[in-house]
C-alpha cells in the first residue's frame, strides 16, 4: 500500500518494466501458485516494480521486486483505501436511490455482460485488491438514479443501462466499462489471463496492455470494442507511468470533479473521494433543472498536462452544451489563468502536440463547429492558441485503440 515503509523508505506505488526484478538484497525469487490439480507451477515475474520515496527522481522504474515476500523490512503503515476517506463521502448505492445497486449489477452480471466480469472482481478481491468501476458509468448511473423522474410511490426510478443517461454521454453499456483498483498492472494481467482461460465463453477474448499508460483492456472478439478497461489508481508526481493505492491522489488526477465517482461492486458502495462529485452533479440541489458544474479536481502545473486537461474539459463542454443548468464558471476561470503561450510550450516530439492532435480528433471527430469553437475560445488565449495549433497541418500520431489513447492517469468517458 502507498504509505507503507520498506527499510524506512515510504512506498509510493508501482511501476512496470518487463523482465526479471530484484529484491531488496539483489535476489529475485519467483513466486508460485497452485494449478487446478494442486501442483505448484512457477509464475513469470509480473513486471511490477515497487516504487519507494526517491524513485520519482529517476528516469524510470527500478528493478526492485513488488513481491512483499522479497522485502523482510516491510512495515504495513499505509492506510487501506477506505480509511483514506471521510465517512460522509462513502454511500451505500441504494441509500442514494433505490434500485441503483440493481442498475450496476446489470452491467456486471446481466444478460449482456461478459461472463468473466463477476469472476474477475471476485478473484481480485480474494487476492486482497480493491476494485471499483470508474468514469462515465458511475457518473451517469448515479445521476440517472436520483434524477427528478420518480415512480408513483415516490421512489427514484431504476435507471436502465441500455438507455442514454441524462448527461448525454451516450449509453452506459456492459461492453464499455472502465475500472480502477489497487492491483498494479502485472498483477491484474496475471489474474485476468487466468480468469479468461477458465471461462469458456471468454477464453478467446483478446487483451491489450499499454506499457506507456499501464492501461489493461479486454477486447471483444472482433477487436472493435472493449469489454473492460482497467488501470490502477493514479499516482501523482511521477515522471513515468505508475500506479498507487491512494483514492485521493487518483481523484485529483482526473479531468473533472463529476468524473471522480467510483463504485465498489462487492460492498455496493458509491465513493465520492473528494466530496465534490455529487454536489457538482447537482444531486443535493433543490433547483430544477439540477445544475451540472464543470470544475477540475486538482491544480496541474505541467504544460502538457494542462493542455490535455483543457482539451478533455472542452470535449465534455461540447458534449453537454445543450444540458440545462450547465455551469462552467470554475472551468473558465482556470482556463483563463493558463499561460497564453501554452501551445508553444508543448514538446514537439511524439508526446507533445502530435499526440494531442490525435486525441482531439478522437474526442471531437472533424473538429468543433464554428459555434462550438467560438464558445471554447471564450475560455481565453490558452484555449484559442491550442485550437489554432490543432487546426494547422501537423503530423498526427494514430490514436490507435482507446487504451492507447488514454493518458496514464485518465480513463473517463
Written description of the protein model:
This protein has 413 residues and is of the alpha+beta class. Helix content is 29%, strand content 15%. The protein is built from 13 helices and 16 strands. The protein has helices spanning 93-96, 100-109, 116-126, 136-145, 185-198, 247-252, 277-280, 303-319, 329-336, 353-363, 370-377, 381-391, 402-405, and strands spanning 5-6, 9-16, 32-34, 40-42, 48-52, 90-92, 131-134, 177-181, 207-210, 215-219, 226-234, 243-244, 262-264, 269-271, 292-293, 326-327. The strands form 5 sheets. Strands 7, 8, 9, 10, 11 and 12 form a 6-stranded mixed β-sheet that branches. It is globular, with a radius of gyration of 22 Å.
Low-confidence stretches: 24-45, 148-172, 395-411
| Percent in strands | 15-25%
Number of helices: 13
Based on secondary structure, the structural category is alpha+beta
Q: What order do the helices and strands follow? A: EEEEEEHHHEHEHEEEEHEEHEHEHHHHH
**Quick one: how many beta strands?**
16
Ends apart, CA distance between termini: 27 Å
What coarse outline follows from CA principal-axis ratios?
globular
User: Helical proportion?
Assistant: 25-40%
List the helices and strands and how they pair.
Layout: E1 5-6, E2 9-16, E3 32-34, E4 40-42, E5 48-52, E6 90-92, H1 93-96, H2 100-109, H3 116-126, E7 131-134, H4 136-145, E8 177-181, H5 185-198, E9 207-210, E10 215-219, E11 226-234, E12 243-244, H6 247-252, E13 262-264, E14 269-271, H7 277-280, E15 292-293, H8 303-319, E16 326-327, H9 329-336, H10 353-363, H11 370-377, H12 381-391, H13 402-405
Parallel strand pairs: 8-11, 15-16
Antiparallel strand pairs: 1-2, 2-5, 3-4, 6-14, 7-8, 9-10, 10-11, 11-12, 13-14
Amino acid at each position: 500500500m502507498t504509505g507503507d515503509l520498506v527499510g524506512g523508505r515510504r512506498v509510493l506505488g508501482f511501476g512496470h518494466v518487463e523482465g526479471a526484478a530484484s529484491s531488496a538484497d539483489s535476489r529475485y525469487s519467483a513466486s508460485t501458485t497452485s494449478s487446478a490439480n494442486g501442483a505448484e507451477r512457477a509464475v513469470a515475474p509480473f513486471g511490477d516494480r515497487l516504487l519507494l520515496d526517491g524513485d520519482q527522481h529517476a528516469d524510470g522504474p527500478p528493478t526492485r521486486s513488488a513481491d512483499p515476500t522479497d522485502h523482510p523490512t516491510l512495515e504495513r503503515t499505509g492506510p487501506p483505501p477506505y480509511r483514506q476517506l471521510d465517512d460522509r463521502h462513502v454511500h451505500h448505492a441504494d441509500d442514494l436511490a433505490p434500485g441503483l445497486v440493481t442498475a450496476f449489477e446489470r452491467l456486471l452480471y446481466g444478460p449482456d455482460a461478459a461472463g468473466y466480469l463477476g469472476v474477475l472482481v471476485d478473484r481480485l478481491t480474494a487476492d486482497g485488491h480493491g476494485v471499483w468501476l470508474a468514469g462515465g458509468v458511475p457518473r451517469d448511473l448515479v445521476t440517472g438514479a436520483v434524477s427528478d423522474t420518480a415512480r408513483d410511490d415516490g421512489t427514484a426510478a431504476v435507471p436502465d443501462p441500455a438507455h442514454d443517461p441524462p448527461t448525454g454521454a451516450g449509453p452506459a453499456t456492459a461492453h464499455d466499462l472502465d475500472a480502477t483498483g489497487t492491483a498494479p498492472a502485472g498483477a491484474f494481467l496475471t489474474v485476468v489471463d487466468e480468469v479468461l482461460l477458465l471461462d469458456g465463453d471468454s477464453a478467446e477474448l483478446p487483451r491489450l496492455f499499454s506499457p506507456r499508460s499501464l492501461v489493461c483492456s479486454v477486447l471483444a472478439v472482433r477487436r472493435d470494442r472493449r469489454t473492460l478497461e482497467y488501470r490502477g489508481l493514479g499516482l501523482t508526481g511521477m515522471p513515468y507511468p505508475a500506479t498507487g493505492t491512494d483514492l485521493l491522489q487518483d481523484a485529483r488526477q482526473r479531468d473533472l470533479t463529476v468524473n471522480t465517482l467510483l463504485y465498489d461492486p462487492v460492498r455496493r458502495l458509491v465513493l465520492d473521494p473528494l466530496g465534490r462529485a455529487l454536489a457538482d452533479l447537482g444531486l443535493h440541489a433543490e433547483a430544477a433543472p439540477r445544475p451540472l458544474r464543470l470544475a477540475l479536481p486538482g491544480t496541474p502545473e505541467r504544460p502538457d498536462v494542462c493542455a490535455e486537461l483543457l482539451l478533455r474539459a472542452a470535449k465534455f463542454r461540447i458534449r453537454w452544451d445543450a444540458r440545462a443548468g450547465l455551469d462552467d464558471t470554475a472551468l473558465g476561470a482556470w482556463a483563463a489563468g493558463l499561460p497564453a503561450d501554452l501551445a508553444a510550450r508543448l514538446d514537439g516530439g511524439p508526446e507533445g502536440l502530435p499526440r494531442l492532435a490525435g486525441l482531439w480528433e478522437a474526442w471531437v471527430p472533424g473538429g468543433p463547429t464554428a459555434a462550438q469553437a467560438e464558445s471554447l475560445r471564450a475560455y481565453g488565449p490558452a484555449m484559442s492558441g491550442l485550437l489554432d495549433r490543432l487546426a494547422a497541418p501537423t503530423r498526427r500520431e494514430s490514436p490507435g485503440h482507446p487504451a492507447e489513447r488514454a493518458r496514464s492517469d485518465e480513463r473517463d468517458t
